[in-house]
Amino acid sequence: MRWRKLGKIFDPTQHRLPDDCVQFAQSPQALIFDDFVRVYFSTRARDSDGKKFRSHIAFVDLAKDLRTILRVSEKPVIPLGGLGCFDEHGIFPMNVLRYGDLIYGYTCGWNRRVSVSVDTAIGLAISHDEGLTFQRFGPGPVLAASLREPCLVGDGFVKVIGGVFHMWYIFGLGWKKFSASTPPDRIYKIGHATSGDGIEWVKEDGRQVIADQLGPDESQALPSVIEIDGRYHMFFCFRQSFDFRTNRERAYRIGHAYSDDLVNWVRDDEDAFLDVSAEGWDSDMLCYPHVCSCDGIVYLLYNGNEFGRYGFGLAVLDR
Amino acid sequence: MFTWRKLAKVFTPQEVAGRDWLKEFAQAPATLLFDDFVRVYFSCRPGADSEGRYVSYSGYVDLDRRNLFKVLRVADRPILALGGLGEFDEFGTYPVSVVRDGQDVRVYYGGWTRCESVSFNVAIGCALSRDGGMTFAKLGAGPVLSYSPEEPFVLSGPKVRRFNGGWQLWYIAGRKWKVVAGRPEPVYKIRMAVSSDGIQWKKMNRDLIESRVEDDEAQASPDVFFANGRYHMFFCYRYSYDYRGKDRGYRIGYAVSDNLLDWKRCDDKVGIDVSETGWDSEMISYPHVFDVDGETYMAYLGDQVGRFGFGLAKLEGRLG
């Protein structure tokens, strides 16, 4: 399998966005309709003091070619959480899926800390209006830290397979101060949980399901799973855990693994390999992949340089 | 109404020397009975840092079983280490609740972290002792009971019990952060979870104790004790605002249950209140009821939520 790049398809700076957001269209996540594709993403507003960002969810509706922009959301999709809640300071990303007549959104909520910058947990929000707005299933998260997953539970991707909800997500192993002059950085890995109803989850608690390529300090993020010809394929992103923001050699790349039983995954980054471009919007970094199928064609939505500050692009799978 | 006869304050942290981690506070007493002594766990603090912030540790004092006012020894070091960078218990291990499990002793504790928009958050951790409760090793770097849709923050005040072969955990869960005079103050309610192994918990997801003084009443220290065929809960409660003084500060409440889950609040039976003068004249809180050699005692905190230690009261008559 190989990905054929189709270029950047959405630039947030070219559109008016809700919630006073101006830049970033991170972690695109597709919801397929009969005659269009709704792509949710996380965009950012600055705090009133101008110092920090908060991520908000917005969407863009694309024609089924996934390249023609039809409209951009005009209203907030989901407000941020209340004072002291897990999602008070941002939602990034939100994974969406149809379940019966409803649309479930699994949010990654951010809350700011003092000794480290942030912690996260995974919430559930439900839409009764075809994904225009979402209402929280309670003010707290459905998946949070546990004995062997001490921090940074986030990036949930949910798929119902054989009547069972599967979630692949990330959990933090901990924070590490790699250098005296920089703030602590985190290391996270991909884990797995299952559920009968999408609300009460049973974790494997601390089992890293995807092997490291870069050694123990590799961070893995944003798993996305699709079935192709009877085999499950996971796309995710990975990077070094230190000096990864501006150093091209240590920045995010797209990884790949496959599984036949949803339990054991074989990492194989070379198959369906997507490399950075020689120049342009995705020449330094590739991150936040989302794989989806539309009219029988498998697509990859992903972010490029600067973690998606200037939007996301598209690749198509050639088999 | 029960009759609790106040005995006296039994432990004063300011009188302990040579322990940097134990300068003030002796909060949330919890007992473990030994042949010759009663070990009382409590939570304490070193001095505040330059920004006035505290961390909290937990330790113990061993009281002579024949004379509970005779201190035999005080822990040389905290029973639990603070958590690592970014972990849920990086800034405090308070309060604790202990229970025997065969030869081992288990502790459940509130782990504290510091947040930006509110001052803190808490989740419940678990650790195991193989040396009779002197030191504990954490079961993991994360919490054993954490946030969930209906319990979004501040899971604290664990009280573990083992009735009828199962594991029960009473605890508090934050309901809201209420901004009072520009400062977020936590409102929390008493909740419960059950387990067959003490590790995997099923939350009951309901408030056990009806709020009395106001809807935003904060409730803590749900201490459950079995006597005379019924379950008795002593707990403490306060107003949501201006609660650091006498008028709206902590008092001790009481509820009774026949099945551990459905509770009838009857504060008029509690039989203990603030004193007219002295160390517990402004507030009383964090009750813990225990039996020693046929007598029933309550350990509790006095003014400033135990800054100056805890005392004992003795039950006259019985819990009916």
Which strands sit side by side, in order, in the main sheet of chain A? 1-20-19-18
Cα(first) to Cα(last) distance of chain A is: 5 Å
CATH classification, class level of chain B = Mainly Beta
Order of helices and strands of chain B: EEEEEEEEEEEEEEEEEEEHE
Overall CATH class of chain A: Mainly Beta
Oligomer: heterodimer
Chain pair with largest interface: A-B, 42 and 39 residues
CATH fold topology of chain A? Tachylectin-2, Chain A
* N-to-C order of helices and strands of chain A: EEEEEEEEEEEEEEEEEEEE
Q: Uncertain spans of chain A, ≥5 residues at pLDDT below 50?
A: none
Weakly predicted, low-confidence segments of chain B = none
Radius of gyration of chain B: 18 Å
For the sheet with most strands of chain B, the description reads: 4 strands, antiparallel
| Biggest sheet record of chain A | 4 strands, antiparallel
The residue-averaged pLDDT of chain A reads: 96
Can you name the CATH architecture of chain A?
Answer: 5 Propeller
> How many domains would you count in the coordinates of chain B?
1
If helices are DSSP runs of H or I spanning 4 or more residues, what is the number of helices of chain B?
A: 1
Detailed description of the structure:
The complex is a heterodimer of chains A (319) and B (320). With 319 residues, chain A is an all-beta fold. Chain A has a single domain, classed as Tachylectin-2, Chain A. In chain A, 0% of the residues lie in helices and 52% in strands. Chain A has no helices and 20 strands. Chain A has a 4-stranded antiparallel β-sheet with strand order 1-20-19-18, with no helix packed on it. A 4-stranded antiparallel β-sheet of chain A has the order 2-3-4-5, with no helix packed on it. In chain A, strand 4 and strand 5 form a beta hairpin. Chain A is globular. Chain B has 320 residues and is mainly beta. Chain B has one domain: Tachylectin-2, Chain A, CATH 2.115.10. In chain B, the strands form 5 sheets. A 4-stranded antiparallel β-sheet of chain B has the order 1-20-19-18. In chain B, strands 2-3-4-5 form a 4-stranded antiparallel β-sheet, with no helix packed on it. In chain B, a hairpin with a 2-residue loop joins strand 11 and strand 12. The longest helix of chain B has 4 residues. Chains A and B meet through strand 8 and strand 11 of A and strand 8 and strand 11 of B.
